[in-house]
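In this supplementary section we document a worked example of the pipeline. Step one takes a protein sequence of length 377 as its only input; no multiple sequence alignment statistics are reported here. Step two produces a three-dimensional model, which step three serialises into structure tokens for compact storage. The input and output of this example are shown verbatim.
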Amino acid sequence: MIYLDHAATTPVDKRVLDAMLPYFCDCFGNPSSIHCCGRQSREAVETAREQIATLIGAASPAEIVFTSGGTEADNLAIFGTVCASKGKGRHIVTSKIEHGAVKQACKKLEHDGYEVTYLGVDGEGRVSPKELEAAIRPDTVLITIMHANNEIGTVQPIPELARIAKLNGIPFHTDAVQTVGKLPICVDALNVDLLSLSGHKIYGPKGIGALYVRKGCRMLPFQTGGEQERGRRGGTHNVPGIVGLGMAAALADAEMEDEAPRLARLRDRLIKQVLERAPTAQLTGSMTHRTPHNAHFTFVGVQGDALVAALDRRGVCASAGSACHSGMGGVSGAVAALGLPPERQEGSLRLTVGKLNDEAQIDQAVVALLESLRDLL
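The serialised model returned by step three reads:
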């Protein structure tokens, strides 16, 4: 098997698993308990909080809120900030290429009477700072734009977009699920008030994530029932998951300097071969402003799902787009927003590299892709 779907999920690093295992049976205490077993778990939780804060350059570990994953982190950021802004306005700004966790949250708010402006993108999938500036209104209470798109891999000009938000006194949230651990991130350099991340995208476990909340940023909880996470997210802590996320963050912080360029080399090798050898192949997104692991193509005359199935029969795991969109049919919002001709939009293929891959696998995957295209065209 050649696994080229690291944007969907990654395997748990064995070092992460080793760090987690004691907290299932031996160190099983509830972190909210004051006895020695509870204190042991509490120390593990706080160590993980520090590891995540270090990875993203947060000023304090207290700014990290643990969640069940990226989706909950996005939802908490959006609903929590909007609820804290009641009376100030009912307008939100986002983009047309957001992950469903953001887009569907905004749709729900529209149903509840809020107004949402969905910014378009250019041919590379980038949001224009000028368009953001023009979209801001006196009643705008939140701007949420993802750091990098999960399908086409385009990295947004977040520092500039967030600067505009800050000048207008508006909280700015970014979904950084696809960039944390792959690109150097400092929340102060990005200018963001809220940032979402997920464990299973960085070789940590599924079912755990975190939301960075800048000190002073007002946000109300939408999950209640306890005073965990300083009252911002009720519920007993998932200690093994939190420990795993912390270890994954520490490993990413230590290894990113070498791993990100390696991934970019594999990505570029893949892109070069596909564009040179695959008929009708077109790279989508930006070559300059792109995550190091993402290669997204469109092809004429094939369906994305059929191409994924053909690759799977040849031992290559890929996707036609977001794993959360898989099986729903139709063209993804991110691809549609690029303004590609209709005949191109349905032939999407996302190949995302990771720790499991090397040059030989990339070359084998390209051969499998060419064979699959010949079968389908």
